[in-house]
Task: inverse folding
């Protein structure tokens, strides 16, 4: 058949090799293949496992199932969602198909999401999947490579990259939160409510289970966290945490009120078991799978030893008889000092055939990792076809993220670069539209919201213009299969 023969011929001609089938690698493979480029996707699991993965599925979520806020008007990650949806993101499509209630956040059934990504990638006619470890640097014959091996890059490849750059990769520690079987939560103490009763993308306004604490219970809980035995690592003090994923006991060490103003803040919540009173502190759980049988403890990533976790977490009101489907854990993540080692197009300066995407570049978060994969896949496909793809404008969330990790925003020196989530600070400010004549003067908080909205509106307009001029998407390569 002509179509099959054409695809076979295309696959033999300088494919793009994508190393790693996490969120970034899967998105990169999808974007490149959809632009007509043949792709070989290399994934070492299940032949070689990692400390954090449990399956051999692509895009497995191992830390939290939340893609965070889906609010494109007033939240930077929600804006990134919107931009990626406009660019045919596989990760966002599968997330939308498998979303679970999470208030204003986008959360997914982790297993269904990963299966969907795996099936879509594996069935693409221009993608060939090879289940094997790439040990050391990719062979010189691979002229177009995207390394998207994530924070748990295998030792051999990590060492080869470090040798090539002449410097050791930076590192930090990342923690995982426990998951509870929902039927073991005492709902005569806990209750369902989203903060401020905010409606989420799935239409659910009571997406969290809340476990209340009095002041005395909170103080005792903090004491237990501080005293509990923790897992330790060699050279621990020399390795930083990522601030966006601090272990809960580390937060407690920073001050007794830190948790109550962080993951355990009670604002926007009213306990119906106590006449609608606001508790002193609250532990929230968020649905972890589509069935609603598993719920993860929000912000409760931890390095406490397992025995201490069950003992301490069962002192939380409503969790006295909790059965844990998974306890918390800790693993070491690695990332490049990207402003030093990558060019503006995510290529390794020392060897430009190698392009990087995902957490290994120093972005933090599932959405950010997938976003860099989206851009890397498009850049590689265009380059393979002899074209130069213009980068997204820095006024977009995608462009700002790439600009940050490649050093366009600073004169980067050693030790100056740390993992970063997307945030409004990475985008140029925009003035909000002037208030109408006779309108009420905005409070400071309202002005801030309107500026965020202005940044978002500008970003989406600039992204649409980028797409319209041909840079964004539609100039496919000559190798595109018929039909």
Result:
């Amino acid at each position: 058949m002509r179509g099959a023969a054409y695809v076979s011929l295309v696959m033999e001609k300088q494919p793009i090799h994508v190393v790693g089938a996490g969120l970034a690698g899967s998105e990169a493979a999808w974007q490149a293949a959809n632009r007509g480029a043949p792709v070989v996707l290399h994934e070492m699991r299940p032949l070689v496992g990692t400390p954090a993965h449990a399956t051999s599925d692509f895009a497995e979520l191992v830390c939290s199932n939340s893609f965070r806020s889906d609010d494109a008007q007033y939240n930077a990650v929600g804006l990134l969602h919107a931009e990626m949806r406009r660019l045919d993101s596989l990760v966002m499509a599968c997330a939308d198909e498998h979303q679970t209630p999470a208030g204003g956040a986008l959360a997914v059934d982790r297993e269904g999401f990963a299966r969907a990504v795996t099936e879509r990638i594996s069935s693409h006619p221009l993608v060939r999947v090879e289940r094997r470890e790439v040990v050391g640097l990719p062979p010189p014959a691979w002229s177009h490579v995207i390394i998207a091996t994530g924070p748990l890059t295998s030792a051999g490849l990590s060492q080869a990259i470090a040798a090539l750059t002449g410097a050791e990769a930076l590192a930090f520690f990342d923690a995982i939160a426990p998951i509870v079987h929902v039927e073991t939560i005492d709902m005569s103490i806990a209750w369902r409510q989203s903060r401020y009763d905010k409606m989420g993308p799935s239409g659910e306004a009571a997406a969290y289970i809340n476990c209340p604490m009095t002041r005395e219970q909170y103080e005792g809980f903090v004491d237990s966290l501080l005293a509990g035995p923790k897992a330790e690592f060699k050279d621990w003090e020399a390795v930083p945490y990522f601030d966006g994923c601090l272990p809960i006991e580390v937060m407690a060490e920073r001050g007794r009120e830190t948790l109550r103003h962080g993951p355990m803040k009670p604002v926007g919540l009213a306990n119906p078991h106590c006449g609608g009173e606001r508790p002193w502190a609250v532990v929230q759980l968020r649905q972890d799978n589509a069935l609603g049988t598993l719920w993860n403890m929000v912000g409760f990533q931890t390095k406490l030893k397992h025995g201490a976790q069950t003992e301490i977490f069962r002192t939380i009101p409503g969790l006295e008889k909790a059965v844990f489907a998974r306890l918390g854990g800790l693993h070491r993540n690695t990332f490049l000092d990207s402003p030093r080692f990558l060019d503006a197009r995510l290529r390794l300066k020392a060897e430009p055939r190698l392009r990087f995407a995902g957490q290994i570049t120093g972005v933090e978060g599932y959405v950010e990792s997938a976003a860099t994969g989206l851009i890397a896949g498009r850049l590689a496909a265009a380059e393979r076809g002899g074209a130069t793809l213009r980068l997204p404008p820095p006024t977009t969330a995608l462009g700002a993220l790439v600009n940050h990790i490649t050093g366009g925003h600073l004169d980067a020196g050693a030790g100056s670069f740390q993992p970063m989530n997307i945030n409004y600070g990475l985008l140029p400010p925009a003035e909000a539209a002037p208030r109408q004549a006779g309108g009420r003067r905005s409070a400071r908080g309202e002005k801030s919201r309107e500026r965020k909205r202005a940044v978002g509106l500008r970003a989406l307009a600039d992204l649409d213009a980028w797409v319209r001029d041909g840079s964004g998407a539609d100039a496919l390569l000559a190798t595109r299969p018929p039909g």
Remarks:
- The chain has two domains: 2-65+78-169+336-468, 175-332.
- Residues 147 and 356 are 5 Å apart (CA to CA).
- Residues 234-239, 409-416, 473-483 have pLDDT under 50 and may be disordered.
- The first strand starts at residue 16 and ends at 19.
